[in-house]
Design goal:
3 helices
Length: 82
């Protein structure tokens, strides 16, 4: 898992037109717990997966992702815990 950003309550809120009933049962179960306001500030991550014995390629992919985030000045920053 590679943290890339944090949940933003305004950007990650579901649109008013979002229809949970149009989803399959698994998605409905996941979205019933979704609350961008309550999750604001939590880390969001991506998971890089590779084939067996391809660890070097996975690490190279993670490095490219970090470099791209650095170029945009969006590298993940740890949450400040008081």
């Amino acid at each position: 898992m590679l943290p890339v950003l944090h949940v933003d309550a305004a950007l990650d809120a579901l649109p008013a037109s979002f229809n949970r009933k149009a989803l399959n049962g698994a998605a409905q179960g996941a979205y019933k717990h979704y609350d961008a306001q309550a999750m604001a500030g939590l880390p969001v991550a991506v998971q890089l997966v590779g084939r067996r014995l391809q660890e070097e390629r996975v690490l190279a992919g993670a490095k490219r992702l970090e470099d791209a985030l650095d170029k945009r000045a969006e590298r993940y920053r740890l949450l400040a815990i008081e």
